[in-house]
Amino acid sequence: MKHFFLLHVAVYVVVLLGSLCEGKVMMEYIGATGVPVTFEPVPIRDEIDFHFILSFAIDADQSGTYQNGKFSPYWAETLTPDSVAAIKEEHPNVKVLASLCGWSLGDKVLAWYNPKDPKKWISNAFSSIQEITNTYHLDGIDIDYENFSKRGNNTFAFCIGELLTLLKNQSVITVASIAPYHLTTQPYIDLFSAYSDVIDYVNYQFYTDKVRQPKGYLEAFKLRAGQFNAEKLLPSYEIDGRGIQGDAFFDALELLEDYGFDVDGVMIFSADGGAANGYYYEKKSQDFLLNSTSI
Ligand SMILES: *[C@@H]1O[C@H](CO)[C@@H](O)[C@H](O)[C@H]1NC(C)=O
Ligand SMILES: *[C@@H]1O[C@H](CO)[C@@H](O)[C@H](O)[C@H]1NC(C)=O
Ligand SMILES: *[C@@H]1O[C@H](CO)[C@@H](O)[C@H](O)[C@H]1NC(C)=O
Ligand SMILES: *[C@@H]1O[C@H](CO)[C@@H](O)[C@H](O)[C@H]1NC(C)=O
Predict the structure, then answer these.
(1) Which domain holds residue 32?
(2) Closest alpha carbon to 262 in 41, 54, 21
(3) Start and end of every GH18 domain (predicted)?
């Protein structure tokens, strides 16, 4: 009888802890720099939804000519369909996304180019992403256009919003995120204000704001939380990069919590640079997320 009771208490505690950790998310870009990176060595905590973001799928051929919405994968060749299947099998809490576009392909700086026929672009994008998703066993899409043509109508919000809506509606993907930075907030605000229903996370690139101190980070977070949505906005860190560096990042996360923001996720760019420091930021970010679970 006593044992029976204890068993029930144990089950209850496990369920309680599980539900408190629900919704904690780690997002990490991988495969953008050309180094032969793999999923295997990245530390993954079971209690956190770990999202790898393959960088990048691009609407262009190898020479950088745009393909009217027909995306192809350009991430590190070491990130194969089999390796995606393997990491997801080993860790059921792992999801894998493909990020669309990125900064450049080879020497060519990529831009949102306002397709002449938006409906055709959406339909090409839908089919090519569906194919990539099936081949690579993906769960979602991240949007990382970083340069916007000033000419013509801005078709970005419409094309991307309709694409995400269709991909979700047809159950091709279950997760969608967007990755604005300080020079691209407006097109992303346009997108988010019309299509927030289909956007799960905002991977705002805080490192581009070049804020180096926790107090400045809090101010930047308040600004972006007002432009997007505090619940969906993730603090972010660039390994060996711009903006806040080292343990000051974790001081900034504490400051966000002290101010009243719930830090339920962290985005890191990128796993390509993680091995060099023993994945310090991946480990400590996940520890922070689990520590901040309050009873
Ligand atoms: C966008 O790309 C063009 C080159 O294609 C470059 O001249 C321009 O500076 C870029 N804009 C931004 C905001 O980076
Ligand atoms: C912009 O949109 C308006 C209204 O939909 C249309 O009349 C106009 O031709 C478009 N301009 C360009 C450059 O696509
Ligand atoms: C897809 O859209 C149709 C029509 O609006 C709707 O009835 C259906 O519930 C949607 N399915 C999903 C999975 O969102
Ligand atoms: C998590 O909590 C432990 C125990 O209180 C502490 O030693 C550690 O520094 C914390 N880690 C982070 C990243 O907050």
Answers:
(1) 25-291
(2) 21
(3) 24-295
- Predicted confidence (pLDDT) per residue in 12-21, tens digit: 554 444 444 5
Q: Which atom of ligand 4 is nearest to the CA of 250?
A: 13
Cβ proximity of 255 and 218 under 8 Å? yes
- Which CATH number characterizes residue 63's domain? 3.20.20.80
Whether residue 17 lies inside any domain: the answer is no
Is 10 part of any domain? no
Decide: 171 in ligand 3 pocket, CB within 6 A. Answer: yes
**pTM of this prediction?**
0.90
**What are the beta bridge partners of residue 202?**
178, 233
**Closest ligand (CA of 108):** 1
Task: Give the number of whichever ligand sits closest to the CA of residue 293.
Answer: 4
**Which atom of ligand 4 is the closest one to the Cα of 254?**
14
In whole numbers, what is the pLDDT of the chain averaged over residues? 93
Number of separate domains in the chain: 1
288 lines ligand 4 (CB under 6 A): yes
Residue with tokens 């809090």: 218
What six digits make up the tokens of 7?
A: 């068993």
Report the nearest-CA residue for atom 2 of ligand 4: 291
Ligand 2 atom 6: residue of nearest CA: 153
pLDDT computed for residue 94 by the predictor: 98
Q: Is 274 exposed, middle or buried (0-12, 13-18, 19+ CB in 10 A)?
A: buried
Answer yes or no: is the C-beta of 291 below 6 A from any ligand 4 atom.
Answer: yes
User: Residue 169: CB within 6 Å of ligand 3?
Assistant: yes
Q: Is the beta carbon of 193 within 6 A of some atom in ligand 4?
A: no
Residues noted as catalytic: 146
pLDDT tens digits along 69-111: 999 999 999 999 999 999 999 999 999 999 999 999 999 999 9
